[in-house]
Every structure is written in C-alpha cells, then in structure tokens.
Amino acid sequence: EGHVRNVESIFTARVPIVKFCDLGTSIECDLSVENKGFKNFLLSINWAKAHEVNSALHRTLNSFSITLLVALHLQTQNPSILPPFSMLFRDGIDPPNVEKRTQIFLNWGQRNQESIGRLFATFFIKVLSLLTQRK
Predict the structure, then answer these.
(1) DSSP character for 112?
(2) Measured torsion, CA atoms of residues 23, 28, 34, 40, in degrees rounded to the nearest 10
(3) pTM, whole model, 2 decimals?
C-alpha cells in the first residue's frame, strides 16, 4: 500500500534524487540522497514545476534556489516567520545540535498573522524587486 506513488530514481542528475508523489497530499516531492549540504532535504516543487520555473533543461531556478528565496521572504516578514539560519546553526551543523536548537523556535512565526495568499503574493513582489535591483 505505502504512502507514496510514482517513485522514480534519477541517478544521472548532478545531485541524484528520488522523485515521488505523496498520497495524502498529492504533493510532488524530490528527495536528495547525495547532496552534501542538505542530506535527505525534502522539497515540494509542485508549484514551480506547474509554472515551468523549475527546469534544468530550460535553465530556470532549481529547487534549492526557490527554497532559499522562500526562506528569505519568510525571514524578512514583520514579524518574521522563520528565524535566521545562523541562529539554528549557532551550536554547529551536526543533526543533534540543530534539532535541539530548532526546539527553541517551534512557535517563532505565530505572531505573524498574514494569510497564505498575501504571503504568496508578496513573495513574488519581493522576487521582482530583487530582480529589478540587479539591472
């Protein structure tokens, strides 16, 4: 029975991944199994794929880049929804220390009352602003 469907291993990619779809949510996911920076980092890239902004073939943003942009957006809200990553890694990058530090931040974003729709819209406004600053 399982919890996923459409499991596909892609070992020829720069970073080998396993692609699958979560049965409970129907979210398409990529599981990176060899990424030295973030082992077993699970990313939902359903939106990006649907809008064709997540394609190595077309040289668009990769999953990691999109994740960092979303993290930046959530960290720069007022009040912030995500803490700065430097706070999470203050005691080192080994998993037990990071897991221990994350417990401090479990309720970090609760003060922010923005709707998901507004956060989604302001994300694109921020990305557009970042892109136009580069010109």
Answers:
(1) -
(2) -60
(3) 0.58
